[in-house]
Amino acid sequence: MRKFFVAVLLVATLASSQTRKLTIDDLLAGGEQAFGRRGNDVVSHDGKFSVIVEHGQIAVKSNDGGEARALTSSSEPKSELALSADEQNIAYINDGQVWTVPVKGGEPLELTHDPAGCGDPRGATDHHPQWNPNGQWILYESGQSGFNELYVISTDGKIKNKLAATEIYRDKDIVASSTPDRGDAVSSDRFDPRPHWSPDGTRISYTERSREFFSGKLKVLAFDQDSGKAADEPIDIYVANNDPGGA
Q1: Average pLDDT, the chain
Q2: How many domains in the chain?
Q3: Is 202 found in the same domain as 230?
Q4: What DSSP line would sit under 3-53, residue for residue?
Q5: 94 and 141 in one domain?
């Protein structure tokens, strides 16, 4: 999977008119927004502080020692922390919605108010927020439609745009809460598309799955940082050979 993403982003850069060239160093030093999923511990770029979940609350802790300073106080579970590029704000998931809170302290802001979709509850709500490098948009995944989709939302919560579906299911494969297993096994296991911003924030790489392409397609989507919308149709970079046992 790591090799797939390297291929996707390198090819996307070669096809782009951007003067900023993507390098292997960009890919391997992607920090908390790189290939692995973030947990509940995010370290600042200079290593001076960490943002953690402690006693159910998001907190900032100096890496030189001392007690953590809580940034939140609500009782709902919090996870999937993401530090903005300027390290001034934290995005996180609180009870299935995307929230932000300033690192210096302040009122947490609920950005999304999305309903939970049907199917596997692990992916039925909003998850995996990622800051655009310009700090004005947050990319996140959502299962509100019964399958995984990519959205962006502005940091004030006023603009939300759907960018792409990462699971393409039709007919009997559509997840339905009325079926015994709440959907066909092809769709109900919540395929992980692993979306990732390019370093300049103008492209998003991700994987798409359908019954016809069960092993996945690697795609790149151009992103308009002004409007927060897709700038063009996504491009297929690589189509994996289907696993005969998959579908």
Answers
A1: 81
A2: 2
A3: yes
A4: HHHHHHHHHHHHH---SS---HHHHHT-GGGSSSPP-SEEE-TTSSEEEEE
A5: no
* pLDDT tens sequence across 14-32: 344 444 444 444 443 444 4
* Domain final residue pick, 110, 138, 166: 110
Point out which residues pair with 207 in neighbouring strands: 218
**193 token code pair:** 């598309």
Query: Quick check: 87 and 42 in contact, CB under 8 A?
Result: no
b/e for 142-175, b at 16 or more Cβ within 10 A?
bbbbbbbbbbbbebebeebbebbebbbbeeebbb
Where are the extended beta strands (E) located within the chain?
41-43, 49-54, 57-62, 69-70, 78-83, 89-94, 97-102, 109-110, 126-131, 137-142, 149-154, 160-165, 167-168, 196-197, 203-210, 217-224, 229-230, 235-239
Instruction: Give yes or no: residues 71 and 103 share one domain.
Output: yes
223 shares its domain with 209: yes
Q: With bands split at pLDDT 50, 70 and 90, how would you rate the model's confidence at 40?
A: confident
pLDDT for residue 189 is more than 90? no
Q: Do 154 and 224 touch, CB atoms closer than 8 A? A: no
- CA 124 to CA 89: how far, in whole Å? 25
pLDDT at 202: 97
Contacts of residue 93, Cβ cutoff 8 Å, sequence gap at least 6: 78, 79, 80, 99, 125, 126, 127, 128, 129
Q: State which residues form the domain around 238.
A: 1-36+113-247
148 shares its domain with 123:
yes
Q: What's the confidence (pLDDT) of residue 175?
A: 57
